[in-house]
């Protein structure tokens, strides 16, 4: 997410697993070793995680951390990189840019860190990218959807800011238009109001949605914003209601989106709220309450439990005994970790130290190609995933249910 930004993996199960993007309270860092494989004579290489491990978005962050841990343990058990043992080094970014930057600085200063999975939020990634890049440490995000992270600020002349940055999820440039097409072409909704939380993820998502919706012939009858630290939205609802929208498109995460949905319906604005992967979490339904029936969300990929590889991942995750669900980005984090591990099979093979292998890992990561939990894992020249499958989910019977899965073209 843009939050990082934010189009689909997991639905019914990932939803059942929970999900989404980040804001956090205070929590300590966590460093754990992947088990199995290796011995006392093995050299150590660490894969870091930067994600919200505490606070409102912890459900998403913990799912990311645990999924990376699972990939590391499996690699060690299989002795995937002979002579090397992989370890997990997890840091809590609290979904805050400055905290994330400090976490990146800590990991970049560790001579054994060779790659990082994260962040959840695009806004945090903007601060993390340059720190890791300066140390030649690859970063693979399972959740960032902000377009500028891979193509820079000039959309007309895309230029990759950092060769060390990759992501396994698709971007707002895909997710926003995908939602617009669903509402206009499949739901038959022509008038929509938009609201975003002023953060990179939400703002970018709404901008991409708005451009496509207007191009299709739809009308944006109202465009409002909220502050992410607000929890009362009477003024916004009052401004939108007289305009008569048939749906509200929201850019942001579930901590704000859930209460907004509940409050707008309590005030008689009984229309579906639709958002991106930032609201695709069971906690959204808890916050929005019973009136969330019919609300919509997009998420990247197909529902995790709809594919054999996804079902296998969920079974392995459950068997590993993690107390938190894999959530919305577990599958993407697992694939991100395995992308790094596949690159390390080449870059660490003849390396005497992690430092010797960091630069080669960047090159080797750009060449990986394998069938992952979320589909084909491969990257284009910008570091973006080549897979553009997304799913629309609808709240039905108090749960997220997959409504439409297709490839964006």
Q: What order do the helices and strands come in, and which of them pair?
A:
Elements: H1 12-17, E1 30-33, E2 43-51, H2 58-77, E3 84-92, H3 97-108, E4 113-118, H4 122-134, E5 138-141, H5 148-151, E6 165-167, H6 172-186, E7 191-196, H7 200-216, E8 219-225, H8 234-240, E9 247-251, H9 254-266, E10 273-275, H10 282-288, E11 296-300, H11 308-319, H12 330-347, H13 354-365, E12 370-372, E13 375-377, E14 389-396, E15 399-407
Parallel strand pairs: 2-3, 2-4, 4-5, 5-6, 7-8, 7-9, 9-10, 10-11
Antiparallel strand pairs: 1-3, 11-14, 12-13, 14-15
Protein name: Branched-chain amino acid ABC transporter substrate-binding protein
Family: Belongs to the leucine-binding protein family.
Pfam family, one: Peripla_BP_6
Key attributes of the depicted protein:
six-stranded mixed beta sheet, Branched-chain amino acid ABC transporter substrate-binding protein, Rossmann fold, alpha/beta, 38% helix, disordered N terminus, Leu-bd, signal
């Amino acid at each position: 997410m843009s939050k990082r930004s934010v189009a689909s993996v997991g639905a019914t199960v990932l939803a059942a697993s929970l999900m989404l993007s980040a804001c956090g309270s205070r929590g300590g860092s966590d460093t754990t070793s992947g088990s199995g494989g290796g011995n006392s004579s093995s050299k150590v290489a660490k894969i870091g995680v930067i994600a919200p491990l505490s606070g409102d978005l912890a459900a998403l962050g913990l799912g990311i951390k645990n999924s990376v841990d699972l990939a590391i343990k499996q690699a060690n058990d299989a002795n995937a990189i002979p002579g090397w043992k992989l370890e997990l080094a997890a840091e809590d970014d609290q979904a805050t840019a400055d905290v994330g930057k400090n976490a990146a600085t800590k990991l970049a200063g560790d001579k054994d860190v060779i790659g990082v999975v994260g962040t959840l939020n695009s806004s945090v990634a903007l601060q993390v990218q340059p720190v890791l890049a300066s140390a030649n440490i690859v970063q693979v995000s399972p959740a960032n959807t902000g377009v500028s992270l891979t193509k820079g600020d000039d959309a007309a002349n895309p230029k990759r800011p950092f060769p060390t940055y990759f992501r396994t999820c698709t971007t707002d440039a895909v997710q926003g238009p995908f939602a617009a097409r669903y509402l206009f072409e499949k739901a038959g909704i022509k008038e929509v109001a938009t609201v975003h939380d002023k953060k990179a993820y939400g703002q970018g998502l709404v901008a991409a949605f708005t451009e496509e919706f207007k191009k299709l012939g739809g009308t944006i009858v109202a465009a409002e914003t909220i502050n992410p630290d607000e929890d009362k939205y009477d003024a916004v609802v009052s401004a939108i209601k007289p305009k008569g929208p048939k749906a509200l498109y929201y850019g942001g995460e579930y901590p704000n989106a859930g209460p907004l949905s509940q409050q707008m319906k309590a005030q008689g604005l009984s229309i579906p709220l639709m958002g991106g992967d930032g609201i695709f979490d069971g906690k959204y339904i808890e916050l929005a309450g019973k009136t969330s029936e019919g609300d919509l969300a997009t998420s990247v990929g197909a529902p995790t439990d709809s594919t054999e590889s996804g079902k296998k991942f969920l079974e392995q995750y459950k068997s590993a005994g993690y107390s938190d669900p894999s959530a919305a980005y577990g599958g993407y984090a697992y694939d991100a970790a395995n992308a790094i591990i596949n690159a390390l099979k080449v870059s660490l093979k003849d390396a005497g130290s992690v430092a010797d292998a960091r630069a080669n890992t960047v090159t080797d990561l750009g060449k990986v190609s394998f069938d992952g939990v979320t589909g084909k894992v491969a990257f284009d020249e910008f570091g973006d995933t080549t897979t553009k499958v997304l799913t629309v989910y609808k709240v039905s019977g108090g749960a997220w249910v997959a409504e439409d899965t297709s490839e964006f073209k």
